[in-house]
Write a structure and sequence with these properties.
Layout (H helix, E strand, L loop, with lengths): L1 H30 L16 H9 L2 H12 L2 E5 L2 E4 L4 H6 L30 H11 L5 H6 L1 H20 L6 H5 L2
Antiparallel strand pairs: 1-2
């Protein structure tokens, strides 16, 4: 008798799991706030699709194909949309944007709770304070004045990366980016 109860418990658990998955798919495909944005079927309810594409190194080409097929907006995960509209850059990334930075930017922060630089700062108040301090550095005249130094640093980075590639070394790119 104990075996029969266990068998039915397993059946019930599987049925609940399948029902939940079916409900999640229905919600994501038809009722989710991003459901009207086209994209791959699997991407609408699971991150498995995007993880696989990134893992295989094919995400860039795939996104280009999807934008060619669907237009400027493509749903690439349940809560993620890729936008290829050049006009949207100012709206999304502008200083007065209503959009907040996602946890994607946490990967650019230094390890061990070090000083979080301008780029990965997610706190809008801190970001605005830092932007005021460094805005002049990004003016065209300042960039042109610093061009030799920028080129020198870029060449040094590329040279180091070529060396690592020749040696087939595994590196932590995050450490190089945060230098």
């Amino acid at each position: 008798m104990m075996f029969a109860v266990d068998f039915f418990s397993v059946q019930a658990a599987v049925a609940v799991g399948v029902l939940y998955l079916f409900g999640w798919i229905i919600y994501c495909r038809f009722f989710h706030p991003l459901s009207a944005i086209p994209g791959p079927f699997l991407a609408s309810f699971s991150r498995a699709w995007i993880v696989y594409k990134i893992w295989t190194g094919d995400m860039e080409r795939t996104q280009r194909r999807l934008h060619k097929k669907h237009g400027y907006l493509v749903r690439i995960a349940p809560n993620e949309v890729a936008c290829s509209d050049p006009e949207a850059i100012k709206i999304i990334y502008g200083s007065k944007s209503v959009f907040t930075k996602s946890d994607y930017y946490d990967a650019w922060a230094p390890p061990n709770d070090g000083y979080v630089g301008h780029f990965p700062t997610r706190d809008e108040k801190k970001h605005a304070e830092r932007r005021r301090i460094i805005n002049g550095v990004y003016s065209m005249s300042s960039v042109l004045e610093s061009e030799k130094s920028i080129n020198s640093c870029t060449e040094l980075l590329c040279e180091s990366m070529r060396g690592f590639a020749k040696q087939q070394s595994i590196i932590d790119l995050g450490l190089w980016i945060n230098m």
